[in-house]
Amino acid sequence: MNASFEPLAVVTAKRAIVLMLAGKAECVQAALEGAAFHSENLTLPWPSVMRLSRYVRVPYRRAVPMTRAGVLRRDLRRCAYCTRKADTIDHVVPRSRGGGHTWENCVAACRACNSKKADRLLEELGWTLKTNPRPPSRAAGGVLVLAVEPLPAWEPWLNVAA
Fold first, then answer.
1. Alpha helices (H) along 63-136
2. How far is residue 113's CA from residue 38's CA, in Å, rounded to a whole number?
3. Which of 9, 43, 59, 109 has its CA 20 to 30 A from that of 142?
4. d(CA 14, CA 44)
5. Are 160 and 23 in contact (CB under 8 A)?
6. In contact, 29 and 45? CB cutoff 8 Å
């Protein structure tokens, strides 16, 4: 997190320890009780949530980048057509028919529905969407939340940014 408690990024354990040793970050919440990194004369907690010591200005990003993982996470890994577990993404208006690769045109889909739909429009099949595809909001760490599956321990810190 930034010094203002704004979520910034997910870093590796090695990077977290380097930041703590350099005095650039502090551990706000340890990962597990008693879990720590040990050296000959130093013990550091295994961090789950860290905060930078100084505020870092982050350039404004207009839109959240569209990724396959982001679409699956946005739709909670549920098929937009039948609500079963989704493992692929589908273009509502197929790209072969002029549909774009955008947040508003991509939904999570199970393999069965994706195969049945193929390159047809929903009207041709008589299907409807269970959810309305839209870009994710930037609240609660927008890019961060779509980057990785958030841990339950991060929830209080993600809600601070909302």
1. 68-74, 111-117, 122-125
2. 51
3. 109
4. 12
5. no
6. no
Burial class of residue 113 in the structure, from the number of CB atoms within 10 Å of its CB (0-12 exposed, 13-18 middle, 19+ buried): buried
Tokens standing for residue 68:
């396959």
Every domain of the chain and the residues it spans: 13-61+138-161, 68-125
Where do we find the tokens 């969407």? 129
Instruction: Please list the residues that pair with 84 across neighbouring strands.
Output: none
* Widest distance between CA atoms in the chain: 70
pTM for the structure as a whole: 0.60
What are 71-88's pLDDT values in tens digits? 998 898 999 999 999 999
Helix (H, G, I), strand (E, B), or coil: what is residue 27? Answer: strand
- Return the closest-CA partner of residue 48 out of 139, 158, 147: 158
Query: 1 exposed, middle or buried (CB, 10 Å; 0-12, 13-18, 19+)?
Result: buried
Q: What is the pLDDT of residues 99-154, one digit of tens each?
A: 999 999 999 999 999 999 999 999 999 999 988 898 876 554 444 445 566 677 77
**SS3 per-residue string spanning 118-146:** CCCCHHHHCCCCCCCCCCCCCHHHHHHHH
